[in-house]
Design a protein that fits this description.
The chain is of the alpha+beta class. Helix content is 50%, strand content 21%. InterPro entries: Bact_2-comp_sensor_kinase, dCache_1, HAMP_dom, HATPase_C_sf, Sig_transdc_His_kin_internal.
Length: 585
């Protein structure tokens, strides 16, 4: 092949390379960037809204739980329950005036002392025994005068409490029309009080909370401009909206649609249901917010495409000029080598990439005569490369599984615990990113302690960890992150599926051992758990355990690892390392 033909061939390849690697990707980016960015914004917005919604749902559930606890207060005092029993039977008229006075005091004074609440947004309670009497526990803003002749039994909340038959009944926003001078809007929790012995109804108790607290909750969260928060009760009736909404929009939200429209505006909907009260909370995020971001992306994409093409054209003509001639010279050198002339070489000029290629060509030619000597070195290099590859497989796998444990903290709004967990993880990452292939056993134990503390954030009391180590073994050097995959497998496959408290143990000790009639010491590392276990004879060995076994064999010639597991009993992993193979710091 002549020089002109080579030059034309290289330029043709450069042209194709330019078109494939520059033009096509730029066109693809310009066409795909807006949709990708829109999808990314939607995901981020949805994630933020879900976090906000979870926190808001938790706050409302907390208030409802406080109200619910107030409705079980009568059960906590036997004398109060006795007074309610007397009020609900014909025995009341047979009591002496003093006995009636004592019973009234229980309901007028003793019970209110139990029902005192320091939270200003809980407005108080109303107790309605079956004889038609009324007892009110008023805080500062609660009227102590009931509307005379008010038909309590006809009210929706009263009937829901009777129908619940002792269970809690949640009521949406309503007026306190049963009290004089009390026009406050409240939402309530009611319960039918029943005789624990005979299950006979004794009365209805209801606790009220000021609906103003819903506005206060909304002020504590950050929403996209124009976002709407809607709260519906279990009958899909409106409890609260931070902006006025039309009945049509309310109906669309109640239907469970993921996208709703109102007044020519579209909204994406993220919703959640409060488990106890069956209230629905929905956040409506305006689509116009996403479109404004998308418009900027289009302009950015066109500017990027134009500048990219100009730069690419300049690079194409520059590169094609200085690539052709050096490649032609290198082809001539390779032809002489092909004919057996190992004394030839390429004349290197400069220090650019092609010059580097020429120097590599000269190095290759000079090393061909040393092929036999280099065979052993190549095998050794391959062994080291495999060692590093096995180690690098573990680190991303470990990082992925550890970060998965943070999701629960984020969804439940435990920001302080999440911060501490992130700080712990950052310390672990510093250790894993250090450019060391080996570490002291003491450092590995500290690393596993941090890892287990992060896992206990998720498992709480379900997981107990015990680590013991012979002090003489702390300075022994082992491959970094050798033990962590075993601990990780024990937690994920043994402890996580378990429904009882599980124990994870790690014991490290020296043990004597006979080898060819001579006593040799070994380091014994035992990692065990009492989780669900599995049939180790039938199951296939996983990636993490296989990597540990291969790294152990590459690092210690006489080392071995034994894994035993039984279903419903747990798993034990034994690692034996001869003392003659170990190194100390």
């Amino acid at each position: 092949m002549g020089g002109d033909t080579i030059r034309q061939s290289i330029r043709l390849r450069l042209s194709l390379l330019f078109f494939i690697t520059i033009v096509i990707p730029i066109v693809g980016i310009v066409t795909q960037l807006p949709s990708y960015y829109l999808h990314l914004i939607k995901e981020q917005e949805s994630s933020l809204l879900e976090g906000t919604l979870t926190a808001l749902t938790f706050d409302i559930q907390t208030y409802l739980d406080d109200l619910e606890r107030m409705t079980v207060t009568p059960y906590l005092n036997n004398e109060v329950m006795r007074a309610l029993k007397l009020k609900s039977t014909s025995q009341w008229n047979q009591l002496t005036p003093f006995e009636q006075y004592e019973a009234e005091e229980m309901l007028n004074k003793t019970l209110p002392n139990y029902l005192k609440n320091m939270r200003k947004d809980i407005l108080g309670t109303i107790l309605l025994p079956m004889d038609g009497s009324v007892y009110i526990t008023p805080p500062n803003s609660y009227s102590d005068q009931v509307v005379k002749g008010f038909p309590f039994a006809e009210q929706d909340w009263y009937q829901k409490a009777v129908k619940a038959d002792g269970n809690v009944a949640f009521t949406g926003v309503h007026q306190q029309n049963y009290l004089n001078l009390a026009g406050t809007e409240v939402f309530s929790v009611a319960r039918l009080i029943k005789d624990p012995d005979s299950s006979r109804p004794l009365g209805i108790i209801m606790a009220d909370a000021d609906s103003v607290l819903l506005d206060q909750m909304m002020k504590g969260i950050r929403l996209t401009a124009g976002a709407i928060v809607v709260i519906l009760d279990d009958n899909q009736q409106l409890i609260y909206a931070n902006h006025p909404i039309s009945p049509e929009l309310q109906q669309q939200v109640a239907s469970g649609s993921h996208t709703v429209t109102a007044a020519e505006a579209s909204y994406s909907v993220v919703r959640e249901t409060i488990s106890r009260s069956k209230w629905s909370i929905a956040i409506l995020s305006p689509e116009a917010f996403l479109q404004a971001h998308l418009q900027r992306v289009y302009w950015l994409g066109f500017a990027f495409a134009a500048s990219g093409l100009l730069i690419a054209l300049f690079l194409y003509f520059t590169v094609s000029h200085w690539i052709v001639t050096p490649f032609k010279q290198m082809i001539q050198v390779m032809k002489r080598v092909q004919r057996g002339d190992l004394t030839t070489s390429y004349h290197v000029k400069g220090n650019d990439e092609i010059s580097q290629l020429g120097m590599n060509l000269n190095t290759m030619i000079s090393k061909l005569g040393e092929l036999i000597d280099r065979e052993y070195k190549a095998v050794l290099g391959k062994r080291n490369a495999e060692y590093r590859a096995l180690q690098s497989q573990i680190q991303p796998h470990f990082l992925y599984n550890t970060l998965n444990g943070f999701i629960g903290l984020n969804r439940t709004g435990q920001s302080m615990q999440l911060e501490r967990a992130i700080l712990s993880l950052s310390g672990m990452l510093r250790y894993t990113l250090e450019h060391n292939d080996w570490a002291q056993l003491q450092e590995e134990i500290e690393f596993i302690n941090k890892y287990c503390s992060l896992q206990r954030v998720r498992f709480a009391e379900r997981m107990q960890v015990h680590i013991s180590c012979d002090p003489n073994a702390l300075a022994i050097r082992i491959p970094k992150l050798l033990l962590q995959p075993i601990v990780e497998n024990a937690i994920i496959h043994g402890i996580e599926p378990c429904d009882h408290i599980c124990e994870l143990r790690m014991d490290i000790q020296f043990q004597p051992m006979m080898d060819n009639g001579q006593e040799e010491g070994i380091v014994l590392i035992e990692i065990s758990d009492n989780g669900v276990g599995y049939d180790s004879a039938a199951a296939q060995e996983g990636l993490g355990i296989r990597n540990v076994r291969e790294r152990l064999q590459l690092s210690f010639e006489g080392a071995s690892m034994v894994l035993n597991s039984k279903q419903n009993e747990g798993t034990t992993v034994l690692i034996l390392i001869p003392l003659k193979d170990v190194k100390r710091a």
